[in-house]
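For the sake of transparency, this paper describes our internal protein records without simplification. The record that follows is passed on verbatim for readers who wish to inspect the format:
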Amino acid sequence: MKRKYLRMVRRTYRYLRHPRIRKIKWLTPFTQAIFNKRYWKPCRATVANGLSIGLFCAMLPIPLQMLVAALGCLRARGNVPVALAACWITNPLTQLPIMVIQQQFGHWLHTSVGIPRPPVIDKFEFPVEAPHIDFMGRHLIDAGTHVVNIGDFVLGFLSAGICLSLIAYPLVWAVSMFLPNRGKSMENWDPSI
């Protein structure tokens, strides 16, 4: 698994350093920053930061989540490949069920826990004609008309993103305990080789 990861990272690193990509002027500030080897080395701290950023960006209902995750990794010194891979949790097949779960999670947080919705969009509601939806054996929605509150949805995706990004740190540290070098940085590793 380690060899496959390193091979994939090396290929990506070489592709991004291609002269055709380097000639694009507006990408120059990003490409100079992203080629810092610290963002590509697999160690416990950078992988935890990258996974946290990637999971948070995956929960955002925006296009170009991977670009936002890569820019976030540059700021927070996270592992870029891990962040980009974590963004694929919300792919075209899973996006709709995750959005439904986020809306229900936000509604539960508002009604049961008492967390207030964002006040600006609290009143925006619209009816949605939904079919019967089951996802992985779990019943999500009955068929019929449902009222979707945008405040619940915003509360749901922000809360889910924050919770998943916080869970990433103990998860990476627990998995790293089973690795041969305990997830410490490999000082002699060079992605450009």
User: Anything to note?
Assistant: The radius of gyration is 20 Å.
